[in-house]
């Protein structure tokens, strides 16, 4: 069989623990036999991040800017325990945070659905993708406990001009107060990422805030989305037959539950934090959730939504068999290869990405799956495969499809 030749490289970011093991298996079994893989490799494993003082993370993000598409393995975000475990020079920042800050992107999370795993919401027939704004609001707030009586004000002191004041509350007893902010530029980036992604995957975009109550703060979000939509996207959306739909957040929540799915739901930072956990759980499993970071300039980084599956890795190190689900990591690769193929006009690569996904889902539908899925699948005859056999079972089917 002739291997597919690539034109431009993908940025490949290796990672940690169990997902690093899966990464190697996926390349050996599902990619290298079929593609002359061209990647620019960055090792984001914690040891090498430490060795390079985390420079490697910054370089990988710069490389995504250069080549447009990256695929990332899950990585450890260090804490005090990891500092000891890996003898780190510093508690390095979350690689995802660093990459997101450099690309100024929005994260889209979508579940991978299979017939035998039913969402808890009966009428959800298609995946719901959540887009979470990743800047500001309560995640960058300032808070104060107010003890006793006194006046709290909002004060803006312009560099040149007159001071502006707004009374928040005249406290006659103890209480609490918080101040938060956002930036038009960040909201604009968020809006463009969402509109571009909707065009990309040909799905309606929903957005919701509480603009009736928050007449300046939330209303600014609503207005920015609306202005950008009308100026830059209205025609493109109509041509593609998709819709931009704005409503109040409480109305959106009710409508999402009653819907059949199949839309992108853009959320303010806090709404996205909360709703992404609800949607993921309602669809079945974190191990079946993909994640893609899209920058307003149109750079893409694909990964699994889950972490490095530490517990399984420690079992693996003890020589015990693991049954870790590689689906989300496989879909990170297929997503990146498809995007690379689309950008380079390489039909074969797009086709291969589709077949890889098809073979993966077929494997599960035929009853071969990892333990996490066996626990929630409604199929009668299930074979629980270990991490390696599951990937090999996908390979058998992939060979027949390509
Ligand atoms: P995790 O890796 O997502 O795993 C939590 C639990 O979820 C696992 O113990 C396992 O449950 C189940 N699970 C997750 N993915 C699975 C899969 N593919 N197959 C089967 N089961 C799966 O979260 P964590 O253990 O809390 O975090 C481990 C490390 O990952 C941390 O150092 C964290 O910093 C990092 N992390 C990285 C990313 C990222 O790079 N994007 C995201 C989140 C966390 P059972 O044990 O019950 O089998
Ligand atoms: Mg959350």
Automatic annotation (TrEMBL):
<feature type="binding site">
    <location>
        <position position="132"/>
    </location>
    <ligand>
        <name>D-threo-isocitrate</name>
    </ligand>
</feature>
<feature type="domain" description="Isopropylmalate dehydrogenase-like">
    <location>
        <begin position="9"/>
        <end position="394"/>
    </location>
</feature>
<feature type="binding site">
    <location>
        <position position="250"/>
    </location>
    <ligand>
        <name>Mn(2+)</name>
    </ligand>
</feature>
<keyword id="KW-0816">Tricarboxylic acid cycle</keyword>
<feature type="binding site">
    <location>
        <begin position="94"/>
        <end position="100"/>
    </location>
    <ligand>
        <name>D-threo-isocitrate</name>
    </ligand>
</feature>
<dbReference type="GO" id="GO:0006102">
    <property type="term" value="P:isocitrate metabolic process"/>
</dbReference>
<dbReference type="InterPro" id="IPR004790">
    <property type="entry name" value="Isocitrate_DH_NADP"/>
</dbReference>
<feature type="binding site">
    <location>
        <begin position="307"/>
        <end position="312"/>
    </location>
    <ligand>
        <name>NADP(+)</name>
    </ligand>
</feature>
<keyword id="KW-0460">Magnesium</keyword>
<comment type="similarity">
    <text>Belongs to the isocitrate and isopropylmalate dehydrogenases family.</text>
</comment>
<dbReference type="GO" id="GO:0000287">
    <property type="term" value="F:magnesium ion binding"/>
</dbReference>
<keyword id="KW-0521">NADP</keyword>
<feature type="site" description="Critical for catalysis">
    <location>
        <position position="139"/>
    </location>
</feature>
<dbReference type="InterPro" id="IPR019818">
    <property type="entry name" value="IsoCit/isopropylmalate_DH_CS"/>
</dbReference>
<feature type="binding site">
    <location>
        <position position="77"/>
    </location>
    <ligand>
        <name>D-threo-isocitrate</name>
    </ligand>
</feature>
<dbReference type="GO" id="GO:0051287">
    <property type="term" value="F:NAD binding"/>
</dbReference>
<feature type="binding site">
    <location>
        <position position="82"/>
    </location>
    <ligand>
        <name>NADP(+)</name>
    </ligand>
</feature>
<feature type="binding site">
    <location>
        <position position="109"/>
    </location>
    <ligand>
        <name>D-threo-isocitrate</name>
    </ligand>
</feature>
<dbReference type="GO" id="GO:0004450">
    <property type="term" value="F:isocitrate dehydrogenase (NADP+) activity"/>
</dbReference>
<dbReference type="InterPro" id="IPR024084">
    <property type="entry name" value="IsoPropMal-DH-like_dom"/>
</dbReference>
<feature type="site" description="Critical for catalysis">
    <location>
        <position position="210"/>
    </location>
</feature>
<keyword id="KW-0479">Metal-binding</keyword>
<protein>
    <recommendedName>
        <fullName>Isocitrate dehydrogenase [NADP]</fullName>
        <ecNumber>1.1.1.42</ecNumber>
    </recommendedName>
</protein>
<feature type="binding site">
    <location>
        <position position="258"/>
    </location>
    <ligand>
        <name>NADP(+)</name>
    </ligand>
</feature>
<feature type="binding site">
    <location>
        <begin position="75"/>
        <end position="77"/>
    </location>
    <ligand>
        <name>NADP(+)</name>
    </ligand>
</feature>
<feature type="binding site">
    <location>
        <position position="325"/>
    </location>
    <ligand>
        <name>NADP(+)</name>
    </ligand>
</feature>
<feature type="binding site">
    <location>
        <position position="273"/>
    </location>
    <ligand>
        <name>Mn(2+)</name>
    </ligand>
</feature>
<keyword id="KW-0464">Manganese</keyword>
<dbReference type="Pfam" id="PF00180">
    <property type="entry name" value="Iso_dh"/>
</dbReference>
<dbReference type="GO" id="GO:0006099">
    <property type="term" value="P:tricarboxylic acid cycle"/>
</dbReference>
<keyword id="KW-0560">Oxidoreductase</keyword>
